[in-house]
GTP cyclohydrolase 1 type 2 homolog (Nicoliella lavandulae), 266 residues
Amino acid sequence: MKGIDLTTRFEQFAPRSIAVEHDPIGIQIGDLNRDVHRVMTTLDVRPEVVDEAVANNVDFIFAHHPVMFRPAKNLDLTNPQNAMYAKIIQNNITVYAAHTNLDDAEGGMNDWLAAAIGINDVEGLVDLGSAEHPFAMGRIGNLSQPTTVAAFAERCKDIFNIHGLRLVSNHPDQSIQRIAILGGDGGKFYPTALAKGADVYITGDVYYHTGHDMLSAGINVIDPGHNIEKICIPHLASLFRKWADENQWAITVLESKVNTDPYTFI
């Protein structure tokens, strides 16, 4: 099979049209017309991930976060980012990224996160699109049983396999049941979560002053970090294996094992 076969099928699942405007999704490096034999799924494309791909003879990296958020100003290979680009090219690896289109897709990133935290009656959080073609960023739903803010925050540490998180709450002992979640940097959408009745809003990268605004608004917020989106790695791999069986693609699908979280809790 060729890279274009995989990306064409993927874009039926998560159309480019539902990505946020100017999000640099799609082909990042390489050629989608090359033959593909070994695909690796990853959250981020970092030098260690590229080393992992080379060691495993991977010829296609499928990432959630675009490797080229900003254009390179030069190709000075003393710059680690440029050196990584060069290594990708030298090893004939194609890199493709699905970012906000994967976030918003039905059955995509935010549905995977919603399933992980165990909410029911799930619906979209931030409604986008049109009446003819609706889609949403984030998800909101209800726990089967009420719990407290503090207890649910502890549960999130186990669910996402993290050693720490940030809790924004005036009342950690408050009973809660309705939960909203938005993977990545979603702090600015807390008013929508509040308007839709969320007792708790889970998102990453909450800014200091936004945290103050959240406290004033009376919503409880759990910030487990951006890296919880690594949940995409096994889910994407599972999708690709399913499509490979359906289409008789002769590919091997690997899951990156590299921890790309830049933060260490001490």
Observations:
- Residues 106-224 form a domain with the Udp-n-acetylmuramoylalanyl-d-glutamate--2,6- Diaminopimelate Ligase; Chain: A, domain 1 fold (CATH 3.40.1390.30).
- The mean pLDDT is 97.
- The chain has two domains: 3-102+230-255, 106-224.
- The longest helix spans residues 232-247.
